[in-house]
Amino acid sequence: MSTDQLAPPDPHHARRWLALGVILIAQMMLLLDATIVNVALPSMQEDLGFSDASRGWVVTAYLLSFGSLLLLGGRLADAFGRKTTFIAGLAGFAIASAVAGAAPNIETLITARAVQGGFAAAMAPAALSLITVIFTDPKELNKAFAIFGAVAGSSSALGLMLGGLLTDYVDWRWTMYVNIAFAIVGILGGLALLHNSADADKPKLSVPSTVLGSAGVFGLVFGAAKAETDGWGAALTLTSLILGAVLLVGFVVLQKVDRNPLVPLRILADRNRAAGLVTLLLGQAAVFALFLFLTYYFQEVLGYSPLRTGVAFLPMMLTVVVVATLTQSLLTKHLTLRAVVAGGLIVGGVGAALLTRADASTHYASWVLPGLILAGVGIGSAIVSAVALAQMGVEGRDAGAAGAVNNVFQQLGAALGIAIISTFVATASNDYLADHGSTAVIDATVHGFSVGFWWAAGAFWAGALISGALIRGGTRLHHEPGQPEPLDEFVGGLV
Hints:
CATH topology of the largest domain: Growth Hormone, Chain: A
Low-confidence stretches: 1-8, 479-495
Radius of gyration: 22 Å
Mean pLDDT: 83
Largest sheet: none
Strand content: under 5%
Structural class: mainly alpha
């Protein structure tokens, strides 16, 4: 009798594409939440009456708990079941969203946002690891990641549009309440379609590794957030960043000797996987900086409404979906992953560079639209491929931890990118005002955004250089003639 005959049937297999749809709904909720709040912040501030300094913490509280608890969340998924962790994360996120939507004051809102981030940290790595264990065929796994990446890459822009729509026509509180609908669908679908993997070698949780890893990531994210408001030379900023870095070094050392490491170093040892993680770090830094400064540019410089701001991002969103599909179904048949990732980052950098030409009198179609489309090409090819590259080839017992590391690099990239580039933007704007007088506010704002776009371009291009050097030559995603394309296969799974 063959090994295949002895092996128990995979409970995911028959409805694997429907299961992917459930995972995508949950992931879309998380990514929408990362940007939907940005558009609604002015309305939140007006309604609850909090200061500009407190406004930043509505976003930072979420990032802090999300980023610092991701490593723990990944190991929880491996230890207690990916389905269990996924559904518990969805339920907790929904409850926290309801509290945030009903918040009577800023303290309640910030606390609820932090709780949201904690449950997101449990759910996000579980989602990635579920994809890894559901799709056992490498070709189907590549397709699943292509679809996942297309949805992930476009959800942030969709969040801006949905945030504008809800804020303009309903109320800012519905930017929180909308998460409940996503969560209910995800929970019902997860209960029906997902299964806990029966891994014989389930990892145990290490308290020292958990404390060091979570505290180290917290220090870096908190330090970056404080740098944005207090400056890089502030005592609290420096202390937090240095302490975070030291703790993470200690964390890595501990993983070598810990019998139950939170992140087994074998996950990071693969050269291609390291290239994927670096691409995610630098790519997300560039992408989220673009989202932030373009949102302010549209509203503060061009005078767009929240809804019109969201619609202005639509070309980027559509480009990401189209390019991600074409990358998996066409480009990777003929090009190596080194060419796809490095080339995509170069194109994304060109898009960011084009945005530096936009000013107060610029027509949307002249510099902004081409810049958005080229940036979307970079996201849809390089960053989508990097998500798969950083997750593929991982042992089943480490799938949750690998998903957590994947998400940590994305969150760190977003948080550090926004914080670091924001300081350069603020400095450039202040210097411009000092040179040209206090009446040149709009020109100073535009000049600062231009500097920010150049730094975003630099992050894209730095990622291209590093990934081009790290990804092994000849690394490809394999295809066979007659194999269904990703969106065709996905739709086929639904019907």
